[in-house]
Design goal:
By secondary structure, the protein is of the alpha/beta class. It is built from 13 helices and seven strands. A seven-stranded parallel β-sheet has the order 3-2-4-1-5-6-7, with helices on both faces.
């Protein structure tokens, strides 16, 4: 294990942080040992997920949020996840270009990550990259997802505060009303609020939130803690308008999580998700290592020929 690398990460050295994240992305033998050493130093950062349909201006909004936090004296970590081509396997990683205003700020660390085939809007290494930035001392970490619409639900299990970004005039009145997206939002940001149709977008969102909030209140008992109603913030990120109000909403939600004890619950859920993910990976890896390739090929051929069903094949493999 490279103890010098770990010490430099804990001191906030940018090159060491980059190297550490690269080790994680490449899933090298050293990656696990490094993460084991860094883990005790994590758990201090507030993680903000930013998701929503493509074209809503997520990168520009994160750019402006980071600039505002910097004026308040805070360092900022940014992880921007870009989709990987299913054909070439490559990714543009263009978020650094879109965030060029803050790319040269020594108090802001930006890392673009390719999904590498992962679904749910995040890369496999995202959770560990967050921990690296957390251990390096970044108190606020933004995670921008790929922007694939309804598949963007993994971020809610990764972030403490999830912002769903909408924009008027995208051909769908309210993308957030679709199943899954409405439930994950802690804050809604209606970006490009200078466009025609913004009133309709905000009104429709507010109506859905009112209905959802009333339903949750009706189901809750008198002894239950206060229920957070996601605010709707209007922003014009390209001009920085509405961004201070969005930061206020983030800080209000952070305070709510602390006061109600929900932060502990979310952190536990986040840890459980990661534990299960690692467990699945290790068990799958061990199973494949112990199974001869020829046996796997024969099972696949039998399934394709309808000689055996996939469920029986899996039980057979696990049983052996």
């Amino acid at each position: 294990m490279d103890t010098e690398l770990i010490e430099k990460v804990l001191q906030g050295h940018r090159r060491a942080i980059s190297r550490c994240i690269s080790l994680i992305e490449n899933d090298g033998a050293e990656a696990q040992a490094v993460m084991q050493a860094l883990y005790p130093h994590t758990g201090q950062a507030h993680i903000v997920g930013v998701t929503g349909p493509p074209g809503t201006g997520k990168s520009t909004l994160v750019n402006e949020l980071a600039k505002l936090y910097r004026t308040q004296g805070s360092t900022v970590g940014i992880i921007a996840v870009d989709p990987t081509s299913p054909f070439s396997g490559g990714a543009i990683l263009g978020d650094r270009i879109r965030m060029r205003d803050v790319a040269g700020d020594p108090g802001i660390f930006i890392r673009s990550m390719a999904t590498r085939g992962s679904l749910g809007g995040l890369a496999r290494a995202t959770a560990d990259a967050i921990k690296v930035l957390d251990a390096a001392g970044y108190p606020i970490i933004f995670v921008e997802t790929v922007g694939a619409g309804q598949a963007e639900v993994d971020i809610a299990k990764t972030a403490h505060t999830t912002i769903v970004v909408e924009a008027p005039g995208l051909g769908d009145d309210i993308q957030a009303i679709k199943a899954g997206i409405m439930e994950i939002a802690d804050i809604f940001a209606v970006n490009k609020a200078d466009r025609e149709g913004v009133e309709h977008t905000v009104t429709a969102l507010e109506m859905m939130l009112d209905m959802n909030h009333a339903s949750r209140l009706a189901r809750s008992g008198p002894e239950e803690k206060a229920i957070w109603r996601p605010p709707v913030c209007r922003t014009i990120a390209i001009r920085g308008e509405g961004v201070p109000e969005l930061v206020e909403a983030i800080e209000a939600h952070r305070a709510y999580l602390r006061e109600t004890g929900s932060l502990v619950e979310r952190e536990r859920a986040r840890v459980e998700k990661e534990f299960r993910r690692l467990l699945e990976q290790r068990l799958m890896q061990r199973l494949l290592e112990q199974t001869p390739p020829q046996q796997l090929t024969e099972l696949i051929e039998r399934i394709a020929a309808r000689e055996i069903d996939p469920y029986t094949a899996v039980e057979k493999l696990i049983g052996e």
